[in-house]
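[Discussion] Sanity-checking designs against the backbone

I'm trying to build intuition for which residues belong where. Below is a C-alpha cell string of 155 positions. I'd appreciate it if someone posts a full sequence so I can compare it with mine line by line.
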C-alpha cells in the first residue's frame, strides 16, 4: 500500500486501518499481522502501535466463541467490490451480480448480501481503482479511464 504524498492517511486508508484494528481488538490478531505484512511499517500509526503493545502485554486475547473472521469479511468485500466495479463499467446490477457470483464461485444471493453488508464500498469503488491501478501500477487518471472503456467493450 502506498501513503498519500503528505504522509497522512487518506480516507480509504483510515477506513482500512480502523477495520483491521477493530478485528484485532476483538481478538482476531491474524488480521493485524496480515495487514502489517502487506502494508509495511508506513502504516504503523500511534493507534496501531498501542494495539500491538496491548496484544504483547496480553490485554487483548482471542475471544471465546466464534466471531466473524477478517478473512470472511475480506472475501465478502472482494465480492461486493467486484459487483460495484462491474456496475460502474456499465453493467446492470443484475448482470453485475451474476458475473461477480460466477467469478468468485458464489451465488447471486450471496453477492446481494455482500453488497448490502458493505454498501460503503460502492462509494469507495473509485478509491479502490485509484489505490490499485494508480497506486500499485502507477497509472494516470486518463489511463484508468481508458482501461475502463476497454473493459466495458470486452464485457
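Best answer:
Here's mine. Compare freely.
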Amino acid at each position: 500500500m502506498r501513503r498519500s504524498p503528505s504522509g497522512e492517511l487518506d480516507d480509504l486508508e483510515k477506513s482500512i486501518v480502523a477495520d483491521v484494528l477493530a478485528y484485532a481488538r476483538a481478538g482476531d490478531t491474524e488480521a493485524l499481522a496480515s495487514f502489517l505484512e502487506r502494508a509495511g511499517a508506513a502504516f504503523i500509526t500511534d493507534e496501531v502501535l498501542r494495539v500491538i503493545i496491548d496484544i504483547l502485554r496480553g490485554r487483548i486475547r482471542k475471544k471465546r466463541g466464534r466471531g466473524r473472521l477478517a478473512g470472511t469479511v475480506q472475501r465478502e468485500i472482494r465480492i461486493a467490490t467486484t459487483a460495484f466495479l462491474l456496475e460502474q463499467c456499465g453493467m446492470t446490477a443484475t448482470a453485475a451480480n451474476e458475473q461477480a457470483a460466477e467469478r468468485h464461485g458464489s451465488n447471486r444471493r450471496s453477492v446481494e448480501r455482500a453488497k448490502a453488508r458493505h454498501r460503503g464500498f460502492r462509494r469507495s469503488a473509485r478509491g479502490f481503482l485509484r489505490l490499485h491501478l494508480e497506486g500499485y501500477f502507477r497509472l494516470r487518471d486518463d489511463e484508468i479511464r481508458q482501461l475502463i472503456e476497454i473493459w466495458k467493450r470486452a464485457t
